[in-house]
TrEMBL record, chain A:
This is Histidine-containing phosphotransfer protein. It comes from Brassica carinata. One of its GO terms (biological process) is cytokinin-activated signaling pathway. It comes from the Eukaryota. It holds the Pfam family Hpt. One of its GO terms (molecular function) is protein histidine kinase binding. Functions as a two-component phosphorelay mediators between cytokinin sensor histidine kinases and response regulators (B-type ARRs). Plays an important role in propagating cytokinin signal transduction. Its main location: cytoplasm. The keyword Nucleus applies. Keywords: Acetylation, Cytokinin signaling pathway, Cytoplasm, Nucleus, Phosphoprotein, Two-component regulatory system. It is found in: Cytoplasm, Cytosol; Nucleus. Residues 40-143 form the HPt domain. The keyword Cytoplasm applies.
TrEMBL record, chain B:
The modification 4-aspartylphosphate is found at residue 74. It is found in: Nucleus. Gene3D superfamilies: 3.40.50.2300. Residues 10-141 form the Response regulatory domain. One of its GO terms (biological process) is cytokinin-activated signaling pathway. It comes from Brassica carinata. PANTHER family: TWO-COMPONENT RESPONSE REGULATOR (PTHR43874), TWO-COMPONENT RESPONSE REGULATOR ARR8 (PTHR43874:SF139). This is Response regulatory domain-containing protein.
Length: 156, 214
């Protein structure tokens, strides 16, 4: 039984490290994990879930604003990007955040085509991250169910 | 020194984003603070018991129900911005002593100095980290000591030199009123001055003879 736990822990650790290495996550995700403890074991999952909900809502509303070429509400788009950039930054969602930076630039110069491309990219990135983190949380659950502790992972 | 450990610090956190509220709440809890979150500046004022209009009874509402040791607020909020809230708090005789910290995801130097000049103790760039919150303890402790009256605490810290005592915090009320007239002089140096004071400790035998000159 111990080997099972050890194996799962190893898997978890490797997976998490790979997410950092591939640029999906950055240091802020580490900060987020620090905030979780025995009293709040679901904190990271909850915050991340809120983030993905935000992504979905904001992407939808920005998509509507960008829909008609002759009538783009760049102010609204800018507001959406701002929020998305803020929350992705707080969560440590590095790729999403980086797209937001480009997105803001397109918005600043009122480049509708550029905005649409960024919107598509943001959508792709957040969904990708969502899948990855879901896998991570599943591993966590398996460890807990097998009676093990979630490893502290140090990322350099 | 013992008295500040009796009760937890109570922080009022203001942010229009649910996500950010959840974050700051957790950060504060992790830093052993009691937290109340609200989603707007006006709700914050309501919570404090501060009425918008110039209420002659405002002084009466002075910390009746809730004792808040610090207000931490987002800068960018619809309606009342964090800056507006800061101003309102600092304009209120009852609540101006509550330290206010501003958070923002944007690094705009002009914005930062404006907030500090208006009396904000700190300006945090988002995402706020646990390490940032350790800066809050000294500000919150000031309010605790003030409320418990002057207590010449025998602290580990060193002697406070008279010229560093641009200390607004722990004087008895009548002297505080005197000081408030001199407050405008501190403005942009206030934060620096406060930091010096904090590091210099609080052990002073007498307050009466010290005049502040900046």
């Amino acid at each position: 039984m111990n080997t099972v736990v050890a194996q799962l822990q190893r898997q978890f650790q490797d997976y998490l490290v790979s997410l950092y290495q591939q640029g999906f996550l950055d240091n802020q995700f580490t900060e987020l994990r620090k905030l979780q403890d025995e009293g709040t074991p679901d904190f990271v999952a909850e915050v991340v879930s809120l983030f993905f909900d935000d992504c979905s809502k904001l992407i939808n509303s920005m998509s509507r604003s960008l829909e008609r070429p002759e009538n783009v509400d760049f102010k609204q788009v800018d507001s959406g990007v701002h929020q998305l950039k803020g929350s992705s930054s707080s969560v440590g969602a590095r790729r999403v955040k980086n797209v937001c930076i480009s997105f803001k630039e397109c918005c600043d110069v009122q480049n509708r085509e550029g905005c649409l491309r960024c919107l598509q990219q943001v959508d792709y990135e957040y969904k990708m991250l969502k899948t990855k983190l879901q896998d991570l949380f599943n591993l966590e659950q398996q460890i807990v169910q097998a009676g093990g502790a979630i490893p502290q992972v140090n990322i350099n | 020194m013992g008295m500040v450990r009796e009760s937890q610090f109570h922080v009022l956190a203001v942010d229009d984003s649910l996500f950010d509220r959840k974050m700051i709440e957790r950060l504060l809890q992790k830093s052993s603070c009691q937290v109340t979150t609200v989603d707007s500046g006006s709700k914050a004022l309501e919570f404090l018991g501060l009425r918008e209009s110039n209420d002659p009874n405002a002084l009466e509402t002075h910390q009746q129900e809730v004792e808040i040791n610090l207000i931490i607020t987002d800068y960018c909020m619809p309606g009342m911005t964090g800056y507006d809230l800061l101003k309102k708090v600092k304009e209120s005789a009852a609540f101006r002593s509550i330290p206010v910290v501003i958070m923002s995801s944007e690094n705009v130097p002009a914005r930062i100095s404006r907030c500090l000049e208006e009396g904000a103790e700190e300006f945090f760039l988002k995402p706020v980290k646990l390490a940032d919150l350790t800066k809050l303890k000294p500000h919150m402790m000031k309010t605790k000591l003030k409320k418990e009256g002057e207590k010449p605490a025998e602290e580990e810290n060193t002697i406070l030199k008279p010229e560093e005592s641009a200390v607004i915090e722990i004087l008895p009320l009548h002297q505080e009123l005197e000081l408030e007239q001199q407050e405008p002089m501190l403005s942009s140096n206030k934060r620096k001055a406060m930091e010096e004071v904090i590091s210099a400790g609080r052990s002073r035998p007498k307050y009466n003879d010290i005049t502040t000159s900046v």
